[in-house]
Known about the structure:
This protein is of the alpha+beta class and 486 residues long. It has helices at 56-68, 157-173, 213-232, 295-306, 310-318, 320-329, 337-357, 371-374, 378-389, 395-408, 413-419, 428-441, 443-450, 456-467, 474-485, and strands spanning 6-16, 72-73, 76-77, 80-83, 93-96, 103-104, 107-108, 111-120, 124-127, 134-137, 144-150, 186-195, 205-210, 242-247, 252-258, 268-269, 276-277. The strands form four sheets. Strands 1, 2, 6, 7, 8, 11, 12, 13, 14 and 15 form a ten-stranded mixed beta sheet that branches. The protein has a three-stranded antiparallel beta sheet with strand order 5-4-16, with no helix packed on it. It has a two-stranded antiparallel ribbon with strand order 3-17. Helix 12 crosses helix 15 (474-485). The chain is elongated and about 95 Å long.
Amino acid sequence: MAIKFYPTIGLEIHAEFRTKTKMFCNSKNDPDEKRPNVNICPVCMAHPGTLPVINKEAVKHVLRAGYAIGGKIADFTEFDRKNYFYPDIPKGYQITQYKYPLVSGGSINNVLITRIHLEEDTAKSFHRENDGNSYVDFNRAGVPLMELVTEPVIKSAKEAGDFARELQTLLRYLGASEANMEKGEMRVEANISVSADPNKFGTKVEVKNLNSFKAVEKAIEFELARHTKLLEENKGEEIIQETRGWDEFKQVTFSQRKKESSHDYKYFPDPDLPKLWISKVKEFNDLKESLPELPKDKRERFLSNYGLRNEAVELFINERALADFFEKAIAGVKDTKDLVVLTANYITSDIIALIKKAGVTNTDELNEINEQTIRISPESYLALMEMIFKGELSSRGAKDTLAKMYELGGGDAKKIAEELGAIQKSDVGELKKIVAEVLNENPDMVAQYKAGKVAVLQFLMGQAIKKTKGAGNPKILTEVLLEMLK
Ligand code: ADP
Ligand code: MG
């Protein structure tokens, strides 16, 4: 009786590039500028008679992204005017690309990409309740913005979230954008539809104002449920093609406006800008060779080379400084798999915890981690790991030593461990003496053990550990104890 419904999602993602200057003028591109209308000039203020000049750095970012996703780079491209009226776009049009995007096709996480094009960001308008006025800040006007559009091939909220996260990681690797969603450097719009017919799309809605990956996933889940319910109740006609907003507080979407279609914008090629034949521009050649190791390749390398858990690998993919630290530390020990895993584990648990505790970042997004915030050199870190690996430190002692090294900003692992009394006693002769004492002092326990009450071992171990002030190597102590009880 239950009908099956088929969800479809397509994403449109904007990301602001980290270029020195804006897309079509020499004004500074500084997303951290707090004072309004500081980074402006007649061009990005839309004064009549000014002329735009293409920022090649921004074009290069799109081309490199295009190579990274395996897309097709345009032979020919041009910029178009998208005409509409709004106070944040005083020219009366936005310069964007319509018919000839810089990049077509490609994929990320097996999600097919339609295109990536380049455009300019708008100014920011805002309303102040205290004086009832509206204001426009032009610092953002003309900042280079890429728009990536996916094919309608995503099937779930999780898949959409994963796609957006992977794009963010890629843009960071490429040095194109910090793509921080909370700062509005990356903005995701989700197109969503549900159909009872696998061969036909349902009516789609577009959801905006998604300021975090979590919001992206929640809003998609909300819309999929809303559509499914309407279809189940046979009220499919109530799904209208529209733009909806996401209410973060109420965790619901709400209707904003009926979507305009592209002919409303009367796109046409911008006569102020030159057409581009990419291969003829020297700076646009050989960009493919300039790509860094990409997230997907690094992921594969980490998974196959180091025998780490998925979560550990993902952490290293997102935190490049930690991955570099890890790889520098194990540079000489690649053959000892267990030491490699141990070295990774203390990074993904203790080092991360120490960095968080030091207040470097209080979000889950740890992208501020760098060599300075790690504080310890890979060499001294490895020295500590080797001690742990050889059983010279208890797990408590290892943690304390690492914390102390972090506090001191590095140092000699062995010396610090000694000073903390964290070195584990592993000398068999010495441990035998201690066990002998314990057995002498507890004859009735020994008798109980010999009568078959194995549980007293715990007690005897505890006594022995106590005598070593917690520093006895438990593995060796157990062996010695069992041997001497025979
Ligand atoms: P529009 O003309 O409304 O902007 P496009 O064809 O340009 O629509 O697609 C915009 C986005 O919507 C793309 O990411 C695309 O994958 C997605 N999309 C298109 N149709 C659907 C649909 N029926 N359901 C979900 N997403 C869709
Ligand atoms: Mg469109």
